[in-house]
Automatic annotation (TrEMBL):
Pfam name, any one: Thioredoxin_6
Signal recorded as keyword: yes
Gene3D superfamilies the UniProt entry points to: Glutaredoxin
Assigned protein family: Belongs to the protein disulfide isomerase family.
Any one Gene Ontology molecular-function term assigned to this protein's record: protein disulfide isomerase activity
Gene: LOC120032945
Signal peptide segment: 1-18
Keywords assigned: Signal
GO BP terms, alphabetized: protein folding; response to endoplasmic reticulum stress
Protein name stated in the entry: Endoplasmic reticulum resident protein 27-like
PANTHER family tied to this protein: ENDOPLASMIC RETICULUM RESIDENT PROTEIN 27, PROTEIN DISULFIDE ISOMERASE
Cellular component, GO, one term: endoplasmic reticulum
Amino acid sequence: MIPLLSLFLSLLAASVIAKDSALPTLSDVTAAEAFIEASEVVVIGFFETPSEETFGYKELVEAAKTVKHIPVALCSDKESWAKLSIVSDTIAIFRKADNHQDNLQLSETKKVEADGLARFITMNELRYITEYNQVTAVGLFQSEVKAHLLLFINRGSGDYKELKDRLGALAPEFVGEFLFVLVHGVKSNEKSLGYFGLTSRDLPRVGIYDRNSDMKWLMPEGEISTERVREFCQSLILGNLKEVKQAGEPDPKTEL
């Protein structure tokens, strides 16, 4: 029994270990990669010496309490730092939706506050299907992925969960090519709906917005099936949408 106990303890030490801080610690590359792979969005605080006196440490612990739905951990292992291209104390966001790593290098930051850090995390919290609002809009438009597949839908509709889950399951097929975005038919999104010539009474509908060309299209009315949405996305990738009439009234100065 003792050798088995020793083996268990050694394996535990090589993975995610709970320290005195409120956050778990990633002790090696295997643990760091497993942590990143386990969720759509995660945050890791890379601190050489994580302590109350370390710049940004306390603020990250406090921010983590605000963004409880996002896994947050700490890492001081230099092999992990090298693997993930970290050169100094950094707070990094890893997300699968566009296979992106967003680094906040603390040596280049004059001031860090818990509220501002929580906003930074939330702003960059892009998922396989991201709800569109004033905060996530910043991350959506800063992403290197320029094409958005948009599901316009009323939150209380009977097919809301089914359609959201259906498109969320399709999104991983288009990582690096599309961001899948959920746009609710609410007053705060009237401008976005109007940009596509829609009102809340017209929903649900599916559209594409291409930031590279500042062009937009609606998928023809009908069933919002996985296959139809997949073909709609492929039509942009193959360049077939450029000859199709755009949705709504063209206004290049208007943003989503």
